[in-house]
Amino acid sequence: MSSQPVSAPDSATAEPLTIMGAGLVGSLLSLFLARRGHQVDVYERRADMRRGGAVEGRSINLALSDRGWRALEAVGIGDEIRQVAIPMYRRVMHDVHGNLSFQPYGKDNQAIYSVSRAGLNRTLLTLAEAEPRIRLHFNQQLTSLDPRHRRLELRDTVTGQEQELAFRRLFGTDGAFSAVRSALQKTERYNYSQSYLDYGYKELNIEPGPDGEWLLEKNALHIWPRGQYMMIALPNLDGSFNCTLFFPYEGKHSFASLQTPAQVQAFFEEIFPDVVPLMPELTDEYFRNPTGSLVTIRCFPWAFDDDVLLLGDASHAIVPFYGQGMNAGFEDCTVLNELMEQLGDDWPAIFSQFQQQRKPNADAMAELAVYNFEEMRDRVGDPRFLLQKKIESKISAQYPDQWTPLYSQVTFSHTPYAEAWQSGREQEQIMSRLMSHIQTETDYDRPEVQALVAQEMAARS
Amino acid sequence: MSSQPVSAPDSATAEPLTIMGAGLVGSLLSLFLARRGHQVDVYERRADMRRGGAVEGRSINLALSDRGWRALEAVGIGDEIRQVAIPMYRRVMHDVHGNLSFQPYGKDNQAIYSVSRAGLNRTLLTLAEAEPRIRLHFNQQLTSLDPRHRRLELRDTVTGQEQELAFRRLFGTDGAFSAVRSALQKTERYNYSQSYLDYGYKELNIEPGPDGEWLLEKNALHIWPRGQYMMIALPNLDGSFNCTLFFPYEGKHSFASLQTPAQVQAFFEEIFPDVVPLMPELTDEYFRNPTGSLVTIRCFPWAFDDDVLLLGDASHAIVPFYGQGMNAGFEDCTVLNELMEQLGDDWPAIFSQFQQQRKPNADAMAELAVYNFEEMRDRVGDPRFLLQKKIESKISAQYPDQWTPLYSQVTFSHTPYAEAWQSGREQEQIMSRLMSHIQTETDYDRPEVQALVAQEMAARS
């Protein structure tokens, strides 16, 4: 894992910077910028999450992978986060009878890591607060932004007090419903789209065992694939699992069709029988927890001259099915840091190259995220699909220079997302040609299959 | 041309309706609704355009084709409009030396019609005003809309007076920057996109001759195709032509690169030499007229329950290159009228079927409009392309049941846009196979080419 160290430039060239939003990307970005010598003011609409209270309406845990680790290591907290992250080495699929099947995520030691969103954010905030160049301002809601004159207005959500501020350079890291982006949307010829899936999600909980032990395999991401919908579970440190049901809003099996506790109970007993005993609070949680929506946001430009720049979900919110939302936002920070390293204080070039470089990758990741939903809810329950994945890892082991599975390129590499997606589509075509000659795992070693594989690989090198 | 007559239903079932926006689609819609027995209130932000003053920022003339005619005939003003419409039977292409080439739009008598936007709108308003069931309210800006409680607020732009109104059913026909749609965009899980081309447009004028005669061929749409950009001209009744330059915002030849009258003059003399003598006001107009932008708007749903419905540009603004923006909006009225005819006062079904039926067609038309830009600015200058069009009309004449050119399906039929687009793509593939055997127009009659054509047609029937 090659990590880009953050070095402090000549502080004479460093200038004060403003960040709107102290979520995962904003707090990480503040560290990158401060360590380059900049004075950074960070404004956050919500209260300081370290003073208690959960973060409403967001997933409880996240899957951290290589792109995210690289950014955390660059600001020096890789080891600290590793202490509280749970590696998940494979998918464990649960069928309607409770039978399990398995699919490793990568090679032997490759894993994605279950981390607490709130825990990670708190750690980043504490680190930022310890940095003399960073000032954090909570309960500050952006009520107005004039990018052309570089002025913004904030309202203190506790005291109601309003203030107007001038800024020189503003980074918008205020998430999928970004107020900074809303102001850019009012500029001329702004390209924007928000696209919702017909699916929502509901968070549920699997309790720990009596001694705090994990009641499902700990080091795995669990999936209950059911064709048109699915449930997943990620492990927490306390022995519990956080489950998420991804479910249509309307239709025969849908949020609309489950209206009473008895209906929910009966549905889970029929469709997810093995988890029902592990969810004593099932019906209470189902009706207490909100139903979340799943949006993809695309926009362009991300920059307004060299004055305002969007990063993270503010510019490219995606659906959660590839576990790359946070990782993509963290990679934004890495890429921005590299450009600052190369281009010094040429901010027009930094902002321009950043958006030119990142936009196609963000678009590719948005498509990949929707693609993986189909794979997870539907294809991972199919023995032919699992066989194909096994064959693919054999090819990758035999021809490591010609073949890296798409999932590994996205998750365990820093290959730009757009390249990964292109390569993944080519590989999928090759696999569909090869799989017509393969019925079992051992078929892979048959001379005629080996010849076909060799021929395909020769065409790739 | 099969036109759906508007018949008045039992007036006991008719209910008062509200329309926001008295542009082309809103004023036409009011006629359809009133003739079905409804009391209709129409609110328009701008002043009554019949009291003088041009409509700012919109094209001066439009190409009316079969879908538009059908709707106008249904409200009984086909003949009246035909008096002031100029048929355009073909494209006339002007090359950089002023040489001309030609491409008919369809069969012998098929034409698209140049009509004045303002003139057509005025006629529709006068017709609406004569209708006892319609009340027109001008200078009424929608400042707030609550679809859930069916209330809206209007501000009189002249007196400043504000009023709050309840409505039972609201039709949003307030154009690409619809205020009605803005309110729907704030409802949950609303899908929305606005996408701009990197091109703008500039309106210019070709003067009539000394005796009011047309200085270019009157009954044609003129195109100056120049690869990455183009100019077009449509005839007006007074002998003038309205020209539109479609031009990149940035780049070597672009709005950004032409900054002085001398630069504009030199550019036109080099690139459009044959029109320069016909444009005595060229540089004045170029700097006086605004540069318009080219946006595609997509959204869904178009209906909020059975309370609010978007039609026309409010739900599907498209770029102008297929001449279908107004025609598509008028077809919305035809389709809505047919559904009212079939479904009576079952408004939930009317709204729901309307959006289900029209949305895929609006999406297809949006794609077609961008596709035709490429054809007009680039391909119509290519002799191979013109040859292909000639061959295509021969095929269509020989096999009328198997083949209707895409342009004719869009322009001279009522085939749903999505079907036309699908069929057009299939035909394009066939043409590319056939054209590899065809070098000249007479090649079409060669036995081996005839055999290939017959074979392709057999596969289509």
Brief summary of the model shown:
Chain A is an alpha/beta fold and 461 residues long.
CATH superfamily of the largest domain in chain A: FAD/NAD(P)-binding domain
- Write out the strand line-up for the largest beta sheet of chain A, numbering strands in chain order: 6-5-14-15-16-13-17
Q: What's the shape of chain A?
A: globular
Give the biggest beta sheet of chain A: 7 strands, mixed
Radius of gyration of chain A: 23 Å
Poorly predicted runs of 5 or more residues of chain A = 1-5, 7-12
Would you tell me the overall average pLDDT of chain A? 93
Strand tally of chain A is 19
CATH class value of the largest domain in chain A: Alpha Beta
CATH-level-2 architecture of the largest domain in chain A: 3-Layer(bba) Sandwich
Distance between the termini of chain A: 24 Å
The most extensive contact between chains is: A-B, 13 and 13 residues
Oligomer: homodimer
Number of alpha- plus pi-helical segments of chain A: 14
What is the structural class of chain A? alpha/beta
Count of distinct structural domains of chain A: 3
Indicate the CATH topology of the largest domain in chain A: FAD/NAD(P)-binding domain
Helical coverage of chain A, percent range: 25-40%
Strand content of chain A: 15-25%
